[in-house]
Amino acid sequence: MYRDVSTCNTYNYGDALYWDARYVQEGGSFDWYQRYSDLRPYVRRYLPPSSRVLMVGCGNAVMSEDMVKDGYEELVNIDISSVAIDVMRRKYANIPQLKYMQMDVRDMSFFPDESFDGVIDKGTLDSLMCGTDAPLSATQMLGEVSRLLKPGGIYMLITYGDPTVRMPHLNRPVYKWKITLYIIPRPGFQRPAGCSLDSYLEPVPTTEKGLLPPGFTLEDPESHYIYVCIKTEETISMPFPLSGDLL
Questions:
Q1: Residue of 149, 148, 127 whose CA lies nearest to 138
Q2: Which residue in 225, 122, 106, 119 sits closest to 164, CA to CA?
Q3: Where is average pLDDT lowest: 62-76, 134-148, 187-201?
Q4: Which of 40, 142, 147, 177 could, after both became Cys, cross-link 229 (CB 3.0–4.6 A)?
């Protein structure tokens, strides 16, 4: 089963109408999962400020604004919701480093191949995994992300999905990704005494299939996972079978 049934409700998170209505109702700004201040060490490690970055499913988050304040020079932000894009265009009309476009991540044909040094995804793949036709939507989105990345480019996925539910989608040879995994506690989690913050900045060891090793224990059961997918020149071998459930 490759749809996130256990974490989904009755809403169709892949539907533009749902998000339009939500942004009209809620207003303000909201960052899914983690703020830029917590993600900064990972972003800076893999994406220099001169990178051309695509923020997929930007919504009304302030992460792109925070990245510009941190020296990033070009962030293209897309979202399926025209309501969110209209709001953000007006809000950041005087910040040339930020561009906003209404677009479905499953079809980003507006952009030519190898257009970006990096793509950041904070909850967008998760939303599609809760929608109808989840496996197909995920395949469409990830194929587009791979197409848009330059060789050596980075797809950084921040998600609630552990490797058992994300690696079968990410670790496909067609994408040519070398994947490194990090795990970060949710905001507000009280770390045990004596725990060093540096421990979260080290990659998590994984098995040949990209899964957590047997007996691995999460410090925070509700941790978030950061998959850093580096686009290589060569096809990466893929231990997961390409079953019909994934297509």
A1: 127
A2: 225
A3: 187-201
A4: 177
